[in-house]
Amino acid sequence: MIDIMRRNHVQVSGNGPQTIMFGAGFGCDQKMWRYVAPHFEENYQVVLFDSVGMGNSDVTLYDAKKYSKLDSYAKDVLEIMEALNLNNTIFVGHSVSSMIGILASIKEPERFSHLVLVGPSPCYINELPDYVGGFDKEALEGLFDLMDKNYIGWANYLAPVVMKNVDRPELTKELEDSFCSTDPVIARNFAKTTFFSDNRKDLPRVTVPSLILQCKDDSVAPIEVGEYVHRHLPNSSLMYMEATGHSPHMSHPEETIELIEQYLQRNGLTK
Amino acid sequence: MIDIMRRNHVQVSGNGPQTIMFGAGFGCDQKMWRYVAPHFEENYQVVLFDSVGMGNSDVTLYDAKKYSKLDSYAKDVLEIMEALNLNNTIFVGHSVSSMIGILASIKEPERFSHLVLVGPSPCYINELPDYVGGFDKEALEGLFDLMDKNYIGWANYLAPVVMKNVDRPELTKELEDSFCSTDPVIARNFAKTTFFSDNRKDLPRVTVPSLILQCKDDSVAPIEVGEYVHRHLPNSSLMYMEATGHSPHMSHPEETIELIEQYLQRNGLTK
Asked: For residues B158 and B160, what is the distance between their CA atoms, to the nearest angstrom?
């Protein structure tokens, strides 16, 4: 029997009748939530995890075929929830993890109370003029080319594009290091799964209410994408952040905490 | 279905293929392990919990009849292990939790790799001249009397007797506060369960190898008791600590860590 807790390096802390679970973005692990998650320990059971292949997950369980689909990552989330007997959970997902949370909530909605989607995108590739995803297919393929030929060069290029906030180079450095500490083959597979998935048709199938946090000047999930998600996701709220870039939980943790708290309060979850 | 994770306020941290689980003594909760447990996070999955009625456990699930037996506390430990799918676990128990770990290991030995028993006592009451437990029955009854009439007075009396190390009054204060923050009725029941249990006949039934940590000048579990446990517990090692009092994990955490590490290394568990 697979030990789910170790497979995903699941960490449980905090105290409260309801659980809040945080999922990290591409090339990242649970450490990225360290400025935000501890805030919720006072009133919630907090669950953190690493996707297989990332952070301190059990990399021996990585299977390229399995993890070529976001659905497999969603299944892992549901297995963690099952292992911990979680229901009525607030799932906070950054970037690709927001889409993973969406897919998991479609499969087992009873596990979820609310979704908090930080920089979600159902489809990264433009289909002009109908859909603005933010990336041309050719540009993305060029990025994968760079990833193959010069992984470190790719990480050095992508990290500042994702993070912005150039006045705080330590943030970009951390993201770069996180990319670089991931196995390059796994990173490439995960990047392909992330950037070539098209989950636009899944959005209307979501029944769990959600909050979309949309950053300013986000090159990965631009405003058009956040607004698209809001239009197609039933029962969603969209909030525009002051934060810039694609990682507000790292660059602007106070605002991220504040907006999540406001949303939970409006929904009667915290006092 | 009872949520075991919340019932016992289970916290999971750390990273490693093997789990080390810490159980707290009478009137205490997992916070008491805060000087020792984090050391093991680098190489182990660390599991902390609060017994029902203590700390941040779900006190609504406290049942005086059920918890009048140490076996029920042992059953809870096994339920936590089942919920987390734990096997081959190192269980570190302080005081009454060492006996709880022993009872759990008799029921489901396959869950346990090793037991670390900090100040264990299978029987607190003297049966002179055959057995030195450390307490006269009359003295204990006087203590329960005080507990009924003046709970705070009782806590003020017992805390320094347990802790020793009078040069560090903050330690005694913490123990006193822990006693005082426990519901007095639950504390009295738990004290009765703890101090009036006689588990001497269970010791020879243990098959899991164990380490006994025996403090100097321990008024709760004196040296005679540690040596009795060692004689009757198959495959046990006894180590005499420099630490004085009954709570070396609080008063002498470095030595406690060091001796546990040495034992685990001798048994091939850590490098």
From this structure: 6
Cβ distance A45 to B1 less than 8 Å, yes or no, reads no
pLDDT for the residue B2: 75
CB B161 within 8 A of CB B219: yes
- Coil vs helix vs strand at A76: helix
Longest dimension (CA), chain A: 52
- Amino acid, res. B47: V
CB-nearest partner of A12 from B5, B56, B85: B5
Nearest-angstrom CA–CA distance, B189 and A109: 42
Residue whose C-alpha is closest to residue B30's, from B13, B11, B4? B11
Residue A30, pLDDT score: 97
Cβ density class A94-126: b for 16+ within 10 Å, e for less = bbbbbbbbbbbbbeeeebbbbbbbbbbbbbbbb
Query: At residue A180, what are phi and psi to the nearest 5 degrees?
Result: -70, -25
Report helix, strand and coil shares of chain A as percent, to nearest 5.
50, 20, 35
Q: Where are the alpha helices (DSSP H) in chain A?
A: 4-7, 70-83, 96-107, 137-149, 151-163, 169-180, 184-196, 223-232, 248-251, 253-266
ipTM associated with this complex: 0.81
List the domains of chain B with CATH numbers.
4-123+199-266 (3.40.50.1820)
pLDDT band at A271 (very low <50, low <70, confident <90, very high): low
- Helix, coil or strand: residue B190: helix
Residue A270 — pLDDT band, cuts 50, 70, 90? confident
Collapsed DSSP state (helix, strand, coil) of residue B151? helix
A17 CB near a chain B CB, below 8 Å? yes
The chain-wide mean pLDDT, for chain A, equals 95
- Three-state DSSP string of A151-186: HHHHHHHHHHHHHCCCCCHHHHHHHHHHHHCCCHHH
Element of type H or E holding B236:
strand B236-244
CA distances from B233 to A6, A195, A248, B32, B73 (A): 32, 59, 56, 26, 20
Strand partners, A15: none
Establish whether A246 is a catalytic residue.
Answer: yes
Q: What number is the average pLDDT over the span B98-125?
A: 98
Q: Please name the residue of chain B whose CA is at the shortest distance from the CA of residue A87.
A: B3
The contacts of residue A118 (CB under 8 Å, 6+ apart) are A92, A93, A94, A95, A98, A213, A248, A249, A256
* Partners of residue A55 in chain B, C-beta under 8 Å: none
